[in-house]
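Protocol step 4 of 6.
Sequence for 5-formyltetrahydrofolate cyclo-ligase (Balaeniceps rex) entered exactly as in the expression construct, tag removed. Do not edit the line below.
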Amino acid sequence: MEPPGEGGEMAAALRAAKRALRGELRQRLRALDAAEKQRQSRLLSRKVISHSKYQESKRIAIFLSMPDEIQTEEIIKDIFKQGKECFIPRYKPHSNQMDMLKLSSAEDISSLTLTSWNILQPSDDDNVREEALTSG
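Step 5 output, C-alpha cells:
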C-alpha cells in the first residue's frame, strides 16, 4: 500500500515525463527533412504490411497521418488492395470519445471533413458509416 499522497505525486511525475518526451520527439521530427520522413514512412509501411498480424487481419484501424507524422497512405492503399476493411478515428468534440468508422475506399478520404485541429475525419452528422466496435 502506498503512503498517502504518493499516488498523486507519481501521476504528476508521469505526466511531466510524458510532456518532456513529447517535446523531445517534436524537436527530433522538426530536425528531419521531408526526404528522410518519407524514407522512414516507407520502411515502417513495409514492416507493417509484411507483419503476420496485419496479413491475418481482415479489419484494420489506422489513423490518417498529418504532415509531420509517419505517412499512412501506403498502408491504407494496401488495406483496400488486399480486400480488408479499413477504419479511421472520428473524435467527438469536447469529449474523450473516439469512434472508429469504416472507409469505403482510399478515395473516400477526399470526402472527409477537416477539423479545427486539421485532422480529416467523417463529419459529426455522418451516421451511415459502420462503427468498428459495434459490428463484426
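Step 6, annotate. The domain at 32-121 is CATH 3.40.50.10420 (Rossmann fold).
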